[in-house]
Design brief:
It is a single chain. The protein is built from 3 helices and no strands. It is mostly helical. It is rod-shaped, with a radius of gyration of 18 Å.
Length: 85
């Protein structure tokens, strides 16, 4: 839902802050979800602790990838904002 707030320069800083403040949450939640999902699969299949470790690694990889995407999106928005008159 894009409204007039996206074009209003007063809200640009708030949008950037919101995007960048999502990063710590991603870095905490993604590995935890991967670990707990891996632990559940370990209990189900009896492969302890390997699936928990794989889930943790995949959680960190997903968090890193999403952090990079958010950072690149923020940089692109900053460049676009600088180009506007």
């Amino acid at each position: 839902m894009r409204g007039s707030q996206d074009r209003d320069p007063r809200y640009g800083g708030l949008r950037s802050a919101g995007l960048l403040l999502a990063i710590p949450g991603l870095l905490i939640v993604s590995p935890l979800v991967g670990f707990f999902l891996g632990s559940w699969l370990d209990r189900k299949f009896g492969a302890s602790p390997w699936l928990a470790i794989v889930g943790l690694v995949l959680g960190f990889a997903a968090a890193g990838r999403e952090t990079y995407r958010i950072y690149r999106r923020n940089l692109a928005e900053e460049e676009e904002r600088k180009k506007r008159p």
